[in-house]
Design a protein that fits this description.
The chain is an alpha+beta fold. It has three helices and four strands; from the N terminus they run ααββββα. It has a four-stranded antiparallel beta sheet. Strand 3 and strand 4 form a beta hairpin. Helix 2 packs antiparallel against helix 3. The chain is globular and about 40 Å long.
């Protein structure tokens, strides 16, 4: 599975259509950008989300992937912001 596919799956299974959860994750990533000593972990449906001063790590909770996925804070934030835009656009079309 490519990194892009894995990120898409993370969005579908762990963030889903919850804009508030996406906002929480964005806030956590921004906090880690401001404070390199910041650490936060949260469990979702398929991944443990670890955010700290070095970036974001998605650790599989099950054996569906081999290894962790590492993202920069900025790429994680942009990915979540784009996901939120997609959800909002889909909702306005419905």
């Amino acid at each position: 599975m490519t990194q892009e596919n894995r990120i898409e799956e993370f969005l579908r299974t762990d963030v889903q259509f919850d804009l508030q959860w996406a906002d929480v994750l964005i806030e956590k990533a921004k906090a880690a950008l401001q404070d390199t000593g910041y650490q936060w972990e949260g469990s979702a449906n398929a991944n443990l989300i670890c955010i700290d001063g070095t970036g974001v790590r998605l650790e599989p909770l099950h054996e569906q992937y081999t290894g962790d996925l590492f993202l920069s804070h900025d790429s994680f934030i942009v990915t979540l912001e784009n996901w939120k835009k997609k959800i909002k656009a889909d909702r306005t079309r419905s």
